[in-house]
Amino acid sequence: MPSIPPSSQPASLADESTRTEPVRDRMTKGELRASLTLASIFALRMLGLFLILPVFAEYARTLPDGHDAQRVGIAMGIYGLMQAFLHIPLGWLSDRVGRKPVMVAGLLLFVAGALVAAFSDTLTGIIIGRALQGMGAISAAITACIADLTRERHRTKAMAMVGGSIGLTFALSLVIASPLLHSIGMSGIFSLMAVFGVVAIGVTLFLVPAPPPPHPVRLPFRQVLMNADLIRLNVGVLALHASQVAMFMVVP
Question: How far apart are CA 48 and CA 139, in angstroms?
Fold first, then answer.
């Protein structure tokens, strides 16, 4: 029986002979470890911060100088204000001295601010502590570290892990903040924040993989500042955070 030339074989047979199984490109163990550990740093830091929001306005009324709504608003908002001022400078610094040194320094400020607030019995002391915490603006360094340690095609997954950890800690804080306030008090919550910060430092030093040396890209600051997409993003985040803090001021 004569053989059928390849060109005259049915199309389905030809397709089957050349069909290859799709290659599953998964995150490597290093990428998964980096994503999970950096997301846990975000979660530890944000859980402590979120625990304050639902109960602080109510707690402030018990302080000697806590009946001034403007000062209570400053105590809640000073953290975000300091973050806004220092995100870009500390991100720039992490490009030059490395991600981990900036992250550890920022977490040390976070711990110091939490301890100052924990041992303060006035609104002024809490404002100082919250300002110190805000000076540890390490979000830019953490997200840059994620970019350093993951391939571009897996970066969205890594960022989703960070976003998911923040969402979970926010939901958890709404449930446990009030019971914690009544069981350990506001000073206890601030002390718990300090513990979270110390744990995050340990994760940074011993569990986060070492990122490659940074390679700064020289770009005019004005060009970055005036980028239309970034302006839209920044205004959106500002509106989100401002409305969130304002809501907890009015509806504690």
Answer: 15
- Structural domain tally of the chain? 1
Q: Residue 177's domain is classified under what CATH number? A: 1.20.1250.20
Alpha helices in the chain (DSSP H): 11-18, 29-60, 69-97, 99-118, 123-135, 139-149, 152-206, 221-225, 228-250
CB atoms within 10 A of CB 15: 10
Cβ within 8 Å of residue 33, ≥6 positions away: 207, 209
At residue 222, what are phi and psi to the nearest 5 degrees?
-60, -40
Q: Is residue 11 part of a domain?
A: no
Which of 68, 183, 61, 52 is closest to 129 using CA atoms? 52
The two structure tokens encoding residue 100: 């981990």
Q: Per-residue pLDDT for the chain (252 aa), expressed as one digit of tens each? A: 455 555 455 544 445 445 555 556 789 999 999 999 999 999 999 999 899 988 998 899 899 888 888 899 899 889 989 998 998 899 989 988 999 999 999 999 999 999 999 999 999 999 999 999 999 999 999 999 999 999 999 999 999 999 999 999 999 998 999 999 999 999 999 999 999 999 999 999 999 999 988 776 777 778 877 888 888 988 888 888 778 777 776 765
- Confirm if 183 and 55 have CB atoms less than 8 A apart: no
The residue with tokens 């204000």 is 81
Q: Per the domain annotation, does 59 fall within a domain? A: yes
| Burial 177-191, CB ≥16 within 10 A → b, else e | beebbeeeebbebbb
| Domain contains 240 | no
